[in-house]
Amino acid sequence: MEILKKIAETLYDGNEDAMPGLVQEAIENGFSAQEVLDAMMAGMAIVGDEFSRDELYIPEVLCSCHAMMEGSKVLKPLLTDQDAKALGTVILGSVQGDMHDIGKNLVGMMLEGRGLKVIDIGIDVPPEKFVEAAIGNNADIVACSALLTTTMPEISKIEKAFVDAGIRDKVKIMIGGAPITQDFCDRMECDAYAKDAGGAATLAVKMCEN
Amino acid sequence: MNSRERVMTAANHREPDRVPVDMVLTIDVYRDMKKVLNMEHLPETPRMGRWTEVQMPIEMIEKLGLDMYYISPRSGVSVHTKGFDDGSFTDEWGCYWKKTAIDGGHFYFELVNPPLANATMEDLETYEWPDPEDPKRYAGLKEEMKEVRETTNLAILAKFAGAVFELATYMRGHERWYRDIINNQEFAHALMDKICQIQKRTNEVIMAEVGDYVDILRLSGEDLGMQDRPLISPKTFKKVVKPHLKELWEHAKKTLHNYNPEAKIMLHTCGSVRPFIADFIECGVDILDPVQPGAKDMNRYELKEAFGKDIVFHGNIDIQKILPFGTLEDITNEVKDAIKALAPGGGFLLAPAHNVQGDVSAEKLVHMVNCVHEYGNYPISLD
C-alpha cells in the first residue's frame, strides 16, 4: 500500500515528472490499474476539496491535474472496458464570445479526475454547438464557462437552445465563471452553479450519481 | 484647488478639496458618452488600446468633471508586429491578439497562441525580443503631454511601465506558465529576468523623453488576484515572482524621480490581492489600483485600516455588479460607501474598478461622477 500512498501524495504535490514512474512501479508490484486509478482519484478529491476551501491555488492545482494526466497515460492501456466506464458524460465549453479557457480546462481536469468523461468543445462556442455535442454524446451534463459580464447573457441563449431542441429535461446545465452567481443561475433556470473547479467536480459527481 | 493639485494632495495622504475622480472608457461606452454629453463632434475612435480602451479627449474629460488624463505609450515595432485583415494583430513581443465579437455588437482582443508555449532555456536566448530603444514607442508623446500640461490643470497618469509576471503569462500561456512557477522555476526566473531587463531599459528611454510630465507612472498590469483568492500562493509570490517585480518597480521609481521627484508610482493588479499588499508597499508602490471591491478579502474599510497609512487606493467602484446591473441609487450608495471608507485623511482616488465595458451606460457614469462631486467634498461627512 506504501506505493499507492506515495502516488496520492505525489499527485497532491503536483510532481508531474515523477508520476509515470510511480504508476509503473505500482503496476509492477501487482496492483491493478483500477487500484492505482482509485488512489489517484482519492488524491484528486483532496486537491478539489482543498481548492474549494480556498486552501490551494491555481498553479498547484494545475500541477496536480497534469500529474493525474501523466499517470493516466500509463494506466489507459491497462484499464478494462468495465474499469473505464465513466460515471457520466459532461460537455464542457466557454460560451460564445469568451476566449478564456484556464477555468474551463481546470474544471475539465477535475471532472476527469473524479471519474467523469469530459468532452471539451473549446472556447467561443455558440449555443447550438452545445446542443449538438450533448445529443451526439448522450451527455448527462453541459458545463458552460463565462468569464465576462459581457458574455454572461450567452448562458440564457444556451438554456433556451436546449429547450428549443426539446432535450432540456434530459441534460443538466451547470454554469460557472468569475461574474456568475447562484442568483444568476436561478434566474437563467440553469441546474447548478459552482464557484470553482473543485465545487464543479463535486456537484457533477452528485448529479450523475442521482 | 485644481485637478492636478487635488490628485497629488490625495496621493500624498492629505485631504484635498474633494475626492479626485477619473475613468477609462472602452470604445462602446465612449460612443455612448459622446451622445449623452452631446459631443458628437469628437472623434469616433480616438486611439484605441488592446483592451479597446480609448484615449478620452481633453474636452470630454473636462465636461465630465474628471481630474486625470491617462496616456499610453505608442506601440513598438519588432519582427513579430503584424496586423491581420480581421482586425487581429501580433504585438512586438510576439503575442497574438485575436479580435473577438461579444454580445451586443462589441468586440475584444483576446490572447491566443502564446509565442513561447514550447520554448526552452536556449530558445529564450535566440528569441527576437523587442528593442527597448525603439523610438516608435514614444513618438508624439512629448508633444501630447506638453499640450495637456500647458492647456489644462489635469494630472497626467502615464501607463508607460511594462509588466513582467503578466507578460510572461502572455508569452508562455496561462496554464504552462502557472506550472512553470511551481515545477520549472529555473525557466520561470530566466523568462522573467529577460523581460525585466527589457522593461527597465524601456522605462529609462521613455522617462528621458517625457518623465518631466508624469505625475503618476502606472506600472502595467501585474494581475495577481482572482475573484476568490490570489492567483498564486503568497509563498510562490515571495520566492519566485517578487524579486523580479521589486527589481523593476524600484528601478522605475528611481528613474521617474530623476525627472519628477514628486511623482508617484501606481500598481495595477486586479482581484483578491490582500496577502501581497505589504509586499507592494515594501517594493515602493505608492498607489494601488483597482482595489476590486467584489473580490475576496478586499473589504474597503479593512483595507483602509490595515494599509491606508502606507498606500493610496485608486478605483474601487464595482464594475462587476453595480455599474453594469445596479440602479442609479445603487451607484449613489456605492460611491458614498467608498468615500466614507477610503477618503478620510486623503489617500483615495475614485474610479471604476477597471476600464468600463460596453455593458455600462454613459448615464450611469455621469451619475457616478456627479455623486463624487456631491458627496466627495472634504471634510467628509457621510453617515
Automatic annotation (TrEMBL), chain A:
InterPro entries: Cbl-bd_cap, Cobalamin-bd, Cobalamin-bd_sf, Met_Synthase/Corrinoid, Meth_synthase_dom. GO terms for cellular component: cytosol. It holds the Pfam family B12-binding_2. Residues 87-210 form the B12-binding domain. Residues 1-87 form the B12-binding N-terminal domain. The keyword rRNA-binding does not apply. PANTHER family: METHIONINE SYNTHASE. Belongs to the methylamine corrinoid protein family. This is 5-methyltetrahydrofolate--homocysteine methyltransferase. It comes from Acetobacterium bakii. The lineage of its organism: Bacteria, Bacillati, Bacillota, Clostridia, Eubacteriales.
From TrEMBL, chain B:
Signal peptide: none annotated. GO terms for molecular function: uroporphyrinogen decarboxylase activity. Residues 118-375 form the Uroporphyrinogen decarboxylase (URO-D) domain. One of its GO terms (biological process) is porphyrin-containing compound biosynthetic process. It comes from the Bacteria. It holds the Pfam family URO-D. This is Uroporphyrinogen decarboxylase. It comes from Acetobacterium bakii.
